[in-house]
Structure to design on (1038 residues):
């Protein structure tokens, strides 16, 4: 074993023997990697397959596209097939049309001569290639762009408002002594117990009464006063020394300036964590938008995807592609900010 | 101008009163040091003057105007904090200008003030750095600079040197003294370090448990401490105390040494270790046994136990040949003895 | 490179800075008028207002809804029926048979949820504990593998549901594997037992990374010298695990248990997309029941949905109280150390 692989497979057993726990560890880790990434990769691979290929069984691992050829006398390019002759030899023919179980084909080199072939005897000629029209078509024709915009709007606005209101509340709760502060804290703790699914009906009625039904604001506002965010920020702000605030007070700063120019910049790490969480939360929200948004033009991506998947004639080639697009921001967050989040969770135990 | 007067200031946190009626007048241009053991209320008193806390009762006047109800920003004072409290996300320049911008001062004036004070404190090259990129001494200068640019009527300094190492502390102390000389602005300086207090102060305020024990110049405090607490607190090593009972105008100290006293009854005699010396054979002396010898080279600190068990410390010049367990006879200069009555108040010799 | 985000940041913050500066004078005036307490109120107000309108008020309103009947959402058009809705939910001829209940769907959903939670939480704890133990070993690339198991946590439930629906369908990846192993392909989600198992498996797949992180943090908080002391004593590894690792991980395990229970009871999104509650009612869980009764079905009954959600809320409150108690005990233990 080379020095490098010895280093990679550092393990419990000494010398060259593998302890059984090493075997379990690596089986678990490699199996886990396949299981965790595999489904998403399969989704991405599938999203580049055309509808015909998606209906095939067994499916191929990689996406293929049909090879076509321009044949004299025909306006459109014709798909090429490998045809097995009765004597066992194979030729490459282009298909004109299919009638029942036989196909009318033509040799590209001799375009005038038509040949009838049993479809059992022909196999499509394909190469690895991407059916990018799965992505392009819904973006151009469907409401997909609309959904995408709605989701971006909800995510950005909700995150901004969350950061602002939560940090203001956290500032008051961490840096002021006032009557009722403990009561407010208790109230916020208590509402950790009230998940959205418990107040669906009355919340719907409130949103209805405020005229926010079928409005993106009806999705945004109920989510922004998160107790988790207030908590996280308050814990962080408690670590900012009071002397800094006092120095600012001596420096003629108003309380609002202290919040805006001293506390907010110093709480930036915690704000960043909350921002990442908020983006992921709001981007992924499903149940509440599903209830509030009933007009198609207000759908967010998640609701839109669910609607597509619920249609009678499920157009998987579009759905898969749109699912991939929906995944992109989250994957970006994962790739670039994963460390932030994992330490945030380990530290505060929030999700 | 910077005259500050405190009138019967009291402060309670909840039910516990921590400042019990303080009266004090600080003259313009004076450097007054608040000194006392931790928990004596010196920092609280400073925060009350700053306006960061409000007194429970009593009034604070600056230049004759009652500012008790004014906010910290409107008192025209500047403060240097123990932790420096530099804004970590701002450059040195921004730290200095933050307070000036808040008063809507003109840009050119802000610039001028920053440049002046940076030159004075020799921090010109540091202006574009952030506090985390500075050494402890540099941060200290910036903190002082932030106070100077405000051109306040008085500076309040809360243990400003306590976060520096010993060597730097001595240098900064000297610089602070020079700065006060040059600016001539009133300064109130809080410390628990009596050497800082002695070297810097025009007048020292000794505090204990929320009360003023004595206000006087450094040398008066040293030479004429008003009570046992001040006597024990000022001077290092601490003053030796001998409790005894006087009758007929005389009191006996352990070992048979007699001193004259102006009144009878329970008294405490105090004498500084520096005012003790080894006795000649024929002299009356304090007698005891050496328990510890700290040889510092130029002088030697000898800890001994007197015959009655009282611990006493002597600072002897040079390197006397003494060891643990040796019998020792110590003489004193009777003119240097401080006498305190049963309540611990100073008795002046008649 | 670093200049681009900085300029972007400046573009975003410039208008915000302008707004912040603009509202400073009125707030200064307010501060002079009311002091620090008044400012505390200003800072709390936006959050508390939103909070009050969209959380606290609905909480109270829920009770009102649960005592009214009708299909109209407007409270004025609803009739007061007292505890009828609860009675309807809770009446059964034979409590072991959901079909004999007046509101049999509720009991089916409750029963499904119960079995789901028990199985899913056990699986979750088992899998995430093993993963955490493995990630806590001195292995190369630990950060990478920790990220690997965390990846699905970030995916939206809808995406999770679609990914697995795609894998479990007739021409899906799972059947490809089955065929390659020489077994018969299945239409997995058309089978009651398979569909139920799939909801458990998929939700464990999606969330285990989160619990693994909590457990891993717990494992890493166990002082190294304890293990070294045990090694000096010649303690066998199995005994080290049972007598040192597990007891010290106890508090974290308890937190994970309760969190997983709380989340499990509310399961909805990924299951709704994966199976839609089917086939039949085999994967119909409580939140979907509330959603269907309150919003989706033609004969919607918001009162009944409100009553059901209050019953579910009570379970959650109990679980949350247990969790708060546990984390407080942990904190005390932490501060004593």
């Amino acid at each position: 074993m080379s020095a490098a692989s010895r280093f990679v497979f550092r393990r419990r057993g000494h010398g060259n023997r593998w302890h059984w726990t090493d075997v379990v560890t690596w089986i678990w880790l490699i199996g886990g990697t396949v299981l965790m990434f595999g489904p998403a990769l399969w989704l991405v691979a599938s999203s580049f397959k055309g509808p015909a290929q998606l209906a095939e069984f067994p499916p191929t691992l990689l996406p293929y596209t049909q090879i076509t050829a321009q044949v004299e006398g025909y306006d459109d390019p014709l798909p090429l097939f490998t045809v097995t002759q009765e004597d066992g030899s194979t030729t490459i023919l282009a298909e004109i049309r299919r009638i029942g179980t036989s196909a009318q084909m033509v040799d590209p080199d001799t375009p005038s001569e038509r040949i009838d072939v049993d479809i059992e005897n022909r196999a499509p000629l394909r190469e690895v290639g991407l059916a990018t029209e799965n992505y392009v078509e819904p973006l151009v024709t469907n409401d997909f762009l609309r959904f995408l915009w709605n989701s971006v709007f909800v995510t950005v606005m909700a995150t901004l408002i969350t950061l602002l209101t939560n940090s203001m509340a956290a500032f008051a709760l961490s840096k002021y002594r006032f009557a009722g502060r403990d009561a407010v804290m208790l109230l916020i703790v208590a509402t950790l117990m009230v998940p959205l699914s418990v107040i669906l009906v009355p919340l719907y009625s409130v949103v209805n009464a405020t005229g926010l039904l079928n409005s993106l604001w009806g999705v945004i506002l109920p989510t922004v006063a998160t107790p988790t965010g207030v908590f996280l920020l308050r814990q962080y702000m408690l670590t900012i020394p009071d002397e800094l605030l006092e120095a600012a007070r001596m420096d003629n700063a108003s309380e609002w300036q202290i919040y805006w120019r001293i506390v907010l910049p110093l709480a930036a790490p915690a704000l960043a964590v909350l921002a990442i969480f908020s983006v992921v939360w709001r981007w992924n929200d499903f149940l509440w938008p599903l209830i509030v948004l009933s007009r198609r033009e207000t759908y967010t991506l998640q609701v839109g995807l669910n609607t597509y998947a619920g249609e009678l004639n499920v157009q998987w080639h579009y759905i898969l592609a749109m699912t991939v697009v929906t995944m992109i921001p989250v994957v970006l967050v994962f790739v670039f900010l994963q460390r932030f989040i994992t330490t945030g969770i380990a530290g505060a135990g929030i999700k | 101008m910077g005259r500050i007067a405190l009138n019967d200031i009291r402060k309670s946190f909840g039910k516990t009163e921590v400042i019990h009626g303080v009266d004090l007048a600080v003259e313009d241009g004076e450097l007054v040091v608040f000194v006392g053991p931790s928990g004596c209320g010196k920092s609280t008193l400073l925060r009350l003057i700053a306006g960061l806390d409000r007194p429970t009762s009593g009034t604070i006047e600056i230049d004759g105007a009652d500012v008790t109800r004014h906010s910290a920003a409107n008192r025209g004072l500047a403060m240097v904090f123990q932790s420096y409290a530099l804004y970590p996300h701002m450059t040195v320049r921004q730290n200095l200008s933050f307070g000036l911008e808040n008063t809507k001062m003109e840009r050119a004036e802000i610039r001028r003030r920053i440049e002046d004070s940076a030159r004075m404190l020799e921090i010109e090259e540091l202006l574009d750095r952030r506090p985390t990129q500075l050494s402890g001494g540099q941060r200290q200068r910036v903190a002082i600079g932030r106070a100077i640019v405000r051109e306040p009527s008085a500076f309040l300094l809360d243990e400003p040197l306590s976060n520096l190492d010993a060597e730097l502390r001595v240098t900064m102390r000297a610089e602070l003294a020079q700065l006060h000389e040059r600016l001539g602005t009133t300064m109130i300086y809080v410390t628990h370090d009596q050497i800082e207090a002695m070297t810097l102060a025009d007048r020292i305020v000794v505090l204990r448990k929320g009360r003023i024990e004595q206000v006087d110049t450094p040398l008066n405090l040293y030479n004429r401490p008003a009570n046992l607490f001040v006597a024990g607190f000022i001077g290092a090593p601490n003053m030796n105390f001998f409790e005894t009972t006087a009758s007929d105008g005389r009191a006996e100290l352990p070992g048979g040494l007699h001193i004259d006293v102006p009144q009878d009854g329970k008294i405490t005699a105090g004498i500084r270790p520096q005012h003790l010396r080894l006795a000649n054979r024929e002299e009356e002396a304090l007698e005891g046994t050496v328990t510890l010898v700290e040889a510092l080279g130029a002088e030697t600190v000898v800890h001994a136990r007197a015959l009655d068990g009282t611990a006493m410390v002597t600072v002897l010049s040079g390197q006397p040949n003494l060891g643990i367990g040796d019998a020792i006879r110590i003489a004193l200069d009777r003119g240097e003895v401080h006498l305190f009555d049963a309540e611990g108040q100073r008795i002046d010799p008649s | 490179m670093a200049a681009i985000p900085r300029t972007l940041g400046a573009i975003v913050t410039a208008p915000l800075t302008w707004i912040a500066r603009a509202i400073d004078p009125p707030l200064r005036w307010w501060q002079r008028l009311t002091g620090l307490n008044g400012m505390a109120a200003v800072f709390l107000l936006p959050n508390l207002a939103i909070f009050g309108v969209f959380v606290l008020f609905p909480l109270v309103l829920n009770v009102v809804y649960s005592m009214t009947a009708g299909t109209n959402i407007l409270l004025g058009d609803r009739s007061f029926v007292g505890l009828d809705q609860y009675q309807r939910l809770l009446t059964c001829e034979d409590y072991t048979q959901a079909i004999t209940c007046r509101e049999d769907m509720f009991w089916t959903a409750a029963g499904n949820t119960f079995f789901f939670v028990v199985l899913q939480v056990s699986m979750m704890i088992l899998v995430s504990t093993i993963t955490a133990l493995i990630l806590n070993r001195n292995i190369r690339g630990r950060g990478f593998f920790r990220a690997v198991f965390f990846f699905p946590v970030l995916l939206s439930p809808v995406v999770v549901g679609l990914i697995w629906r795609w894998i479990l369908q007739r021409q899906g990846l799972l059947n490809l594997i089955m065929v390659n192993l020489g077994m018969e392909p299945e239409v997995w989600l058309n089978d009651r037992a398979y569909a139920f198992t799939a909801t458990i498996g998929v939700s464990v797949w999606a969330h285990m990374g989160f619990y693994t992180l909590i457990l891993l943090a717990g494992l890493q908080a166990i002082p190294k010298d304890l293990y070294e002391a045990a090694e000096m004593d010649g303690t066998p590894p199995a005994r080290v695990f049972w007598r040192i690792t597990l007891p010290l991980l106890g508090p974290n395990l308890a937190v994970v248990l309760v969190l997983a229970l709380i989340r499990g009871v509310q399961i909805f999104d990924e299951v709704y997309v994966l199976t839609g509650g089917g086939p039949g009612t085999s994967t119909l869980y409580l939140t979907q029941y509330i959603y269907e009764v309150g919003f989706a079905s033609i004969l919607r009954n918001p009162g009944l949905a409100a009553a059901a959600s209050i019953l579910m809320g009570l379970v959650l409150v109990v679980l949350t109280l247990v969790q708060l108690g546990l984390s407080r005990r942990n904190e005390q233990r932490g501060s004593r150390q």
Summary: The mean pLDDT of chain B is 89. The radius of gyration of chain B is 24 Å.
